[in-house]
Give the backbone structure.
Amino acid sequence: MAEITPLNLKGCKVYKGYLDKSAQHSLLGDVRSIVGKAPLFSPMTPWGKPMSVKMTSAGKYGWYSDKTGYRYSTQHPNGVEWPEIPLTILKIWNELCPDSPRPECCLVNFYQDGAKMGLHQDKDEKDFSHPVLSISLGDDALFRMGGVQKNDSTESVWLSSGDILVMGGESRLAYHGIDRVKFGSSQLLKAAGRINLTLRVVD
Ligand code: MD3
Ligand code: FE
């Protein structure tokens, strides 16, 4: 965990190369254990089309979507409670967000086969004064960051395995998305794909 100064992307702090290879592999083990207990699924959008990104969660709350809308739920769609957030992941939160309460959701996003995520805001949480932290693992992804208005100008950056983002302050409600993933660009995963972990305070 080198002490590095983050880049600033429209108020979002970008810690390039925060996690070394061994930390990335250890997180991958944590992700496998989460997925073993709470299998990945494709949330159904309210407009009836499954999301291209597969998801699951750890923590008190998991993020979920179906025909009735987006929300946090204390249960996986299969009815079981979400597994606990692994300590290695909480440790990263404590290092980079030392003054914030513990996160209650660790959302796991899995990008395969051309999956992407359109420009959106994260606003299903109660208190936007708490930051969101994101960890990238696996293939490189083109991340786009805009402003609080949908038509604000945007800036893009490639996110690589081991990079961490912290969205606090005015960037917390900014529009953002993943335009594309360079499938096969990283050797971390056995198959092509990208994993993103986002930590959020929900209540
Ligand atoms: C900026 N995930 O899960 S992470 C999401 O790479 C999400 O899977 C993307 O957007 C991914 O909601 C982007 C970076 C990120 C996460 C949350 C943010 C950027 C953010 C919240 C507010 C502003
Ligand atoms: Fe988001």
